[in-house]
Amino acid sequence: MSRTKLYTAIYVVLFVLATAQAVVEQAGYLEESYWLAFWAIMVLSAVKAVVVAGWYQHLRWEPRSLTTLMLLGLLGAVALTVAASYSIL
Amino acid sequence: MTDDEHETTADPTGDEPAVSDGGTASDGGSIVDDDFPADGVPDTPHGDDHGLPPTHSIRRWFVTTNHKDIGLLYTVTALFFLIFGGLLALLMRLELWAPGADFLAAGSYNQAVSAHGLIMVFWFLSPLAFGFANYVVPLQIGAKDLAFPRLNALSYWLYLFSGILMGISFFQGSTFNGGWTMYAPLNMPVYTPDIGGTTTVLALILFVASATVGSVNFLTTMHRMRAEGMTLRRMPIFTWSILLTVWMMLFAFAALLAALMLLSSDRLIGTAYFAESSPGGAMLWAHLFWFFGHPEVYIVFFPALGAMAEIFQTFTGRRLVGRKWFIGAMLLVAIQSFVVWMHHMFLTSINLEIKTLFMATTIGISLPFDLMVFSLIYTMLKGKIRFKTPFLFGFGALVLFILGGITGVFLGAVVLDYTLRGTYWVVAHFHYVMVGGVTGLVGGLYYWFPKMTGRMYDETLGKVHFGMYFVGFNLLYFPMFLAWETPRRVFEYAPALTGWHQLSTVGAFLLGSSFLVMFYNLFKSAFVGEQVEGQPWDFASTAEWTVPSPPPLENFPGVPTYASGRLEFEDGGSAQTDGGAVHGKAAALPGSEVTETEHGGGESHASIWPFVLGAGAFLVLLGLSGLQRGYFPEGTMGGVHIGTAIVGGVLAFGSLVAMTREKFHGPEGPFGESWPFTTVENTKLGLWIFLASDVILFGAFIGAYVFSRVAHGWTDWHHLIPEAHVVLPGLINTYLLLTSSFAVVIAMEFAKRENRLGVVGSLVATVGLGVGFLINKGIEWQHLFHIHTEAFPAGWDPGTNIASTTFYVTTGLHALHVIVGLVIAGYMIFRAWGGAYMGDDEPIEYFGLYWHFVDIVWLFLFPLFYIV
Amino acid sequence: MHGGLLLQVAGQLEPDGNRAELFGTIFEVFLVLGTAVGVVVIGYMLYNAYRYRDDGTAPAEETEDIGRPTLGELPEGGGHGRKLLLSFTLSAIIVISLILWTYWALLYVEAGAAQPAEPEMEDGTTVDVTGYQFGWQFEYPNGNTTDGTMYVPEGERVRIVVTSSDVMHNFGIPAFKTKTDAIPGQTTSTWFGPVEDGEYTIKCYELCGAGHSYMTGTVEVIDAEEYERMFVEPMNSTNASDGGTERVDPATAAGGSSAPSVGLPADGGVATRLPARTAATEGVLRA
Ligand code: HEM
Ligand SMILES: [Cu+2]
Ligand SMILES: [Cu+2]
């Protein structure tokens, strides 16, 4: 039963974080200081992603090699995006 | 991809017995060829109770899922594409006999150039290597087959059908004629309007699908299914080269898939990713293409390197010098290959800082190759070198590769590249390296020919082939260095260079005809060549030579193990000698392959569905090729296209369902070595690996968005978006998806507690929420399509501007993932209703992995496309 | 820009600032060293292949105890590790120093291509180049444009800023060893010269469609003063022309009475043109 409770608690957290993202926008923080608000919103997304991957996908309880595998993919995608965007700045 | 083959689920304990816990293995079967019947042909009597027809039956080749059969199919098909691509090359060389378009028309020349490049790189070189990989790798690591045999057959059929689609494109006006690099915006339908151009792009997508399925399969197999004692570090060098190749393929091909999907969207729906009106369009393509393209040059080269290393070891009778360093160097190259792509873009508008960085990484990546070259050379010292055909080709390949590498250093010096770029210097360089690689693989073909056919090729003809090949090669490509001032992909060149080009053409025909000798030799020898036993070469050491030629369906006479430091076969029966730990294990797990081998094995080897699925996918894409700007052509042609697509869709869907329902047994554990995924069961690992490639796919889509936005000016972006595009629909959809993820987790809990209604109920909730997500999106899209504002009088549709393009296509790809998930979930509701999954939550867990992944992607799409 | 100091040193090393010579020097050094390395390495390979050929001695008779690979063993490495690392280090040093040595030249070339901080610092002229299927259009400092032929002043450096109005092209002048991509929506810049009197060919180095092979142009070097008058001084009736189609070589134009034929965009803005295709490519496109 405790598992189910844990999952429910996580669900609530995710729900709140998503709402928080919208609130940041509604409160006009993006107009005030765009990049600060931008990173705040992205960090919120990252936190949600880590929570879903760690608990709902059980990566926490799997061998680290699986996490490494996914991070490798992520690293490749980020390298591509950052280097390509930087190249034309 | 998600839950088919879950019948192969193995590893019931979830935790494999530790290998060789103390007890040294038995003396069971030391390996000498005469342990085996010399006539070990695959269709041994007990072979046909797998439903697999004998080799001389045509039917066998349509249903087989055995890795050795698939290896042969790959090899033969790849050689066919060699002829195809080679004929195109000869046409080009004829055209270049003298300056001017006197033989081919300009448009035809461009078709030949483009198709030649695409066919050689995609449909010949990689698949040839994959043929060997299929045949040899399971033998070398001690596996009975690949982890997912039907997916392996599917890889092959997708490959073949993609090639056929490529061939068809020639008859749809014109095949793609903008070069194999397919630079934007020449790849847009405004500039290359023929339907054949679209078909080529779709054919490539099908090829990438094949490569991705193949990579997932190989990675799972090689990581999970090695014989006891065969740790990663001790894997034979060819197997190592393949392991790294498939890792690179997994990530690189996902990036290519992204590029091709964006391009298809531009060509089929009329979006604007690569249109010249998108400020970064041309650069976006170049980045995506070369992010794939540079790893690709190693993807095609590594297997050749691995084959060369095996050949050197066998024919010099020496072990590879600095083996550890060699492997380390390959590993380094594989990683670095993802951070050098911009050296193909030195003349574009990238800035000096990034040029400097990529110059540095490019030098960095050339150094490990030095080490590998020296390692091969030193392997000859104190050797006992026999100049058999495989060695001649291996040795020749090394010479060619050295020349290619030296001329590559010229290109790595950016100032020189500024001038050499776009000329025949580059053409000569990459042919020396890539066709150098082909040379190594031809060596591999002669090397493994006796293993694959059980017969020896004719040595004299082999040497004749090498002589003609090597002379022809250098006659063909060396003059290109001398005539380097010729621009690439032209037929008009300075008359002073005519002599060099004519030499080159002569060389091309010599090279081409050398292959006639090879085909004659191999074809004849396959039927009447001298019969060989397991090991025709002295000093060969890897496991494929310990079994008969060709090996029996089950590969090994028992469970292979290296626990004692040498290959031995546990015969699993009662005839144990010293009762080692391994025997204990085998006996403790009745029904494992150990006992079954005796009776011909428990694995299935036949299924028709991969073929049908391949055909279905082929028809779908053939039908879709007619689509332009979202519409099929008017009249009968349009009807034919739509009909083809529908028939294909039905076939594909039907065969997927049939595949899930079919009783099919892949190889089951326990396996010897599975590091670093010991506790991750095969299907689950396959799914995770697939998801890793999906990360790159979505990453590249999001990257395309970020890049386009940066090119446009990040904060000016909102001018491209109507006011009506608000946060709310996105937020609602975030809630819906999060809730549906939660529902899947709950379904899993219910399955654990064997509550049937609970499982059905939560799965229904999942589907309901997913459908709600799609409906909400649909309403939002409809609204945006039809807005009338001052800025967007004609609505905001996918083709309106780059912002609408990125929005609809990226979230559209995500929606497609949702739909696939819903179909699977629907099927699972149906099964759950019938009482499946009670106490067996694995299928639900695996579905959940996929569904949560789709959820995670949305967590990033939401802020990027709705908030910031 | 970074590496300012290096740049100064480079400037001194640089013979007379000509890119073609720069390329020639570096290319030659690479060629000599590359050939040397190739000959040594391949020679060594051939020598060893011959020396250690199988001469028929049975393994048992071999003088030294050489472990040969045996069937079914776990793969291992052979000896000679020291030798391997030594030759690797050596080759790495050669490659790295070669490339580093060329880096100053890269900085030098890049500095010439960069936009001068202030217009007065410019020593030469800047021409805007636009590629199109299948030709080149040039716009000069005073807004004059020409098509197909690029006029440049003798003895001066020319900076070019290149873009495309349709697909990707690559603008190259082989004689000057200069080359840069023409990308729609982007600009790239590079430079060449100072150049001597004469006529040179422009070629396209990026596949751009059916007419790619024919996509050539001409560089005509004209007297610097003539260039100044035609293409730098503000336009008036004597140096502006209304886009006649005939091409007149300014050098041969009698007494300068006739100006080089140049096209002036009707609206005075940047010419966005759909050029008439030459007869040659017209035929090609149909083929
Ligand atoms: C050994 C060190 C190597 C170096 C330093 C090197 C360097 C380069 C550079 C800088 C380019 C870009 C040239 C240009 O487009 O201007 C290039 C092109 C190319 N290289 Fe290499 N390379 C090396 C090895 C390889 C290998 C192993 C392969 C393939 C197996 C390969 C295949 C290619 C191909 C296909 C192209 C041309 C792509 C195109 O534009 O169509 N190279 N190389
Ligand atoms: Cu590259
Ligand atoms: Cu061109």
Low-confidence stretches of chain A: none
Query: Greatest interface and its residue counts?
Result: B-C, 111 and 92 residues
Q: Pairing-aware structural class of the strands and helices of chain A? A: mainly alpha
By DSSP, the count of extended strands of chain B is 2
Mean pLDDT of chain A: 94
Small molecules bound:
protoporphyrin IX containing FE, copper (II) ion
Q: Helix share of residues of chain B?
A: 55-70%
Radius of gyration of chain B: 28 Å
Give the overall shape of chain B, derived from the CA principal axes: globular
Main sheet makeup of chain A: none
- For this structure, what is the CATH homologous superfamily of the largest domain in chain B? Cytochrome c oxidase-like, subunit I domain
Strand content of chain B: under 5%
Largest sheet of chain B: 2 strands, antiparallel
Low-confidence stretches of chain B: 1-49, 573-600
What integer is the average pLDDT of chain B? 90
CATH fold field value of the largest domain in chain B: Cytochrome C Oxidase, Chain A
What is the count of DSSP helices of chain A, taking H or I runs of 4+ residues?
4
* Element pattern of chain A in H and E: HHHH
Total count of strands of chain A = 0
By DSSP (H or I, 4+ residues per run), the number of helices of chain B equals: 23
For the record, give the distance between the C-alpha atoms at the N and C termini of chain B, rounded to a whole number.
Answer: 34 Å
Task: Give a structural overview.
The complex is a heterotrimer of chains A (89), B (868) and C (287). Chain A is mainly α. Chain A has two domains: 1-57; 63-89. Chain A contains four helices and no strands. Chain A is flat, with a radius of gyration of 17 Å. Chain A starts with a helix and ends with a helix. The model of chain A has no long low-confidence stretch (mean pLDDT 94). Chain B folds into two domains: 65-528, Cytochrome c oxidase-like, subunit I domain (Cytochrome C Oxidase, Chain A); 716-868, Four Helix Bundle (Hemerythrin (Met), subunit A) (Up-down Bundle), CATH 1.20.120.80. The radius of gyration of chain B is 28 Å and the shape is globular. In chain B, 63% of the residues lie in helices and 1% in strands. The model of chain B is unreliable at 1-49 and 573-600 (pLDDT under 50). Chain C contains five helices and ten strands; from the N terminus they run H-H-H-E-E-E-E-E-E-E-E-E-E-H-H. In chain C, helix 2 runs antiparallel to helix 3 (81-113). Chain C is elongated. Chain C has two domains: 2-52 and 82-113; 124-255, Cupredoxins -  blue copper proteins (Immunoglobulin-like, Sandwich). Classes of the chains: A mainly alpha (89), B mainly alpha (868), C alpha+beta (287). Chains in contact: A-B, B-C. Chains B and C meet through helix 3, helix 7, helix 8, helix 9 and helix 10 of B and helix 2, helix 3 and strand 7 of C. Residues 169, 204, 206-208, 212, 215 of chain C line the site of one copper (II) ion.
